[in-house]
Structures
1.
Amino acid sequence: MSDVMLANASVKKIAPWLEPIWDGMNLAAFPNAVLIHGQSGIGKFEFSIELARALLCETSSAIKPCKQCEACRWFDSGNHPDFIALVPETHRKLMPQGDFDSDESPKKSKASQADTDGDAPEKKEKKSISIEDARSAIEGLSIGSHRGGNRVILVYPLEMLRSDSANTLLKSLEEPPKNTIFILLADRLDRVLPTIRSRCRLLSAPRPDRLSGLNWLRTQLGMIPGLKMSDADVESIFDEQGGAPYAVLDSLIARHNKDEKDELTIAIQASRFLLQAMSQGARINWLDAADKTQKARYSVLLATMQRWVSDVQSCAQMGSPRYYPKHEATIKTLAQQARLPKLLRFWKSLIQARRHENHPLATRIQLEALLSQYQQVFED
């Protein structure tokens, strides 16, 4: 490895299974745009934050980021003038500390005021990146960087860009400003415009094997005071989350904190109730299930349904459950009761629903339609 390549990954916030990608990056010959894609919850975002920090680091050392220079300190405070993050309001809490987390931030002030007077309505965070945010970020690129080095634009998740925002981004990718680097992240590469994909270097982020993922997860959990969980429970949740360690860690922390309003806590509770309902097969009360799970993100509920149905299909074809092995007896019973042609049609309906999961149509209406179809899978 050359002396200008990134090294010493062990001191960085890089997941072990992503270290080969990290070690293969050359800061001296970095492309104008990279598109990092892979399953949600495997550490892509944390990887991209560390990459942005390294690209902005001003140390003369070959090992970046140094975490000591002024640029690194600016970045860690959340106020680096040459780092622009295009993320939905729902994802801003994932960013480095600074404006979004400070007591003086507008968002926090409004929340505090609402708690004080009890009259202000709770504002629902937007899940998409607005055209105003995209244009504001892009318009400033014509001006040189504040510190004379790189400027980094991070967009996450890329597939959440509205079409008008995506077109604005595309124009900048076609004629990138000098010393400007785009780091784009996508959970679903198939939802990214082909014109955007063609202008980026694609980096596929792998999911860890089960043993590596569980070992990393246990290490992280061991550093959280008061969080105790049996290995069997950790492995069960790991399988339920499709082997995505960061998603599992976030889920366990949310459950440990017992924050009933936290989005992850809502998602966990809704997914568990949804599984209980689907385990009833033809006896499912789909109206009740839709009513009690509708507050969770539709994409999370769809993923839960897909994993459950995938296990049912596997057992129907003499295989074993991958995501819910602890429910193997129930899944095998359902596999025997299911009408395979209907099961396959339902699977196609879920795939179609995933393609339009961000549609503004009410979650409850969509859930009722799908769960009603699920019930029919077990009927003649």
Note: The chain has two domains: 9-204, 259-376.
2.
Amino acid sequence: MGSTGLEVARTKMRDEGVDKVAIDTFAHYYRLLEHGETGMIPESSIEPLDMESLADVDVDDEVAAEAIRKTVVIKLNGGLGTSMGMNRAKSLLCVRRGLSFLDIIARQVLHLREAYDAPLPLIFMNSFRTSADTMAALSRYDGLAVDDLPLEFLQNKEPKLLLDGLLPVSYPKNPDLEWCPPGHGDLYTALRGTGLLGRLVDAGYRHVFVSNSDNLGAVPDARVAGWFAQSGAPFAIEAVRRTPSDRKGGHFAKRRSDGRVVLRESAQTPPGDRKALADLDRHKYTSTNNLWFDLQAMQETLDARDGILGLPLIRNVKHLDPGDPRTPEVVQIETAMGAAIEVFDGARTIEVGRDRFVPVKTTNDLLVLRSDIYDIGRDFVLDQASEAVPYVELDGAFYKLVGDFDKRFPEGAPSLRRASSFTVDGDFTFGHGVTVVGDVSLDATSAQRIAADTQLRQGAT
């Protein structure tokens, strides 16, 4: 028997129909939490990591083609975009020409199937909040499902725990808020618990490529698939050089005690090590969350560990209702899927171009994606049309929520192809055909309108 809090949580999960593998995994992390585990990775325990670059790797065309024919694509699609004011799958956001993230992902895969004569199954890991909307949007694509494989499987859910006492929270006002996802490390638990992992192995697939649905740069590229196949690695993650916008994010490092590669998230960094976290010269690489794994190796490892991969704990403290600081503080037990890199012997990292990492976490990112920085070709792959992606910072008071953002760009995003940076402080509405050149900063204390076809040049205020 476990503690009272754990037993109450187990019962709540069973009553909700949560899979047994997920309940056992939750119990594993609950015990760690109960015994004071924080999941912190001190700077003193790690050292910087260097890695090879895809640009320097030779991959034979036939090796690449054969690898992509044995690859399954999984897109993480559980996010609602709540930080941008959305209440449905973020991947339904319009990106360009009336196409959403989901539209572009589906068309990327359909193009690659034809180009390589590959089955290339596409499967979404949805949450209980994103499943219905996502499947409705994908229903327009005949033939997207492959053989008898599903287009989706569901991420598990777990109870939020009161920070004081670790009991599952009760919130009759909105029972949905009593639950949270277990982080994207749940990928492995859900694959095994649903039986999908075994089905993919039995169907003869060798590799899985996983990425976030809000990252349209994460195309299942045959060359990367070929590199992974010929490396013989059981697990790999694509990395990019960190930029100033990544200072607060996670990074790769090497653990001093055993030489293993680890992925340290910001939530796992002690307060005293924040300066080291932000040091781009020391910790050069961040994760794209594009990862590859060998299906057989994953199945064997999970079987050997009774379904619990043993990823590092992430203890995430939030308010019960994220939008209401008056609600009690809760603990969300989470894991990161990239942390599996430290589980597998021979796991690899590889530096890729920034074009494979185009995440949309804020409306700043959305403005860049909707602008002319990227062209979308017939293969539906993003092609960067400018030498560099400009830094964009929009006033959160007026642009943070998608609805407010759309009102202020009613006729589309400005041209950013010649911009170095674009900062907006205040309430501006933009007309059609606005162009930004160089470093532009707008500042106003009252609502302003930028007329159609205006060219905003360096030094504008």
Note: The mean pLDDT is 94.
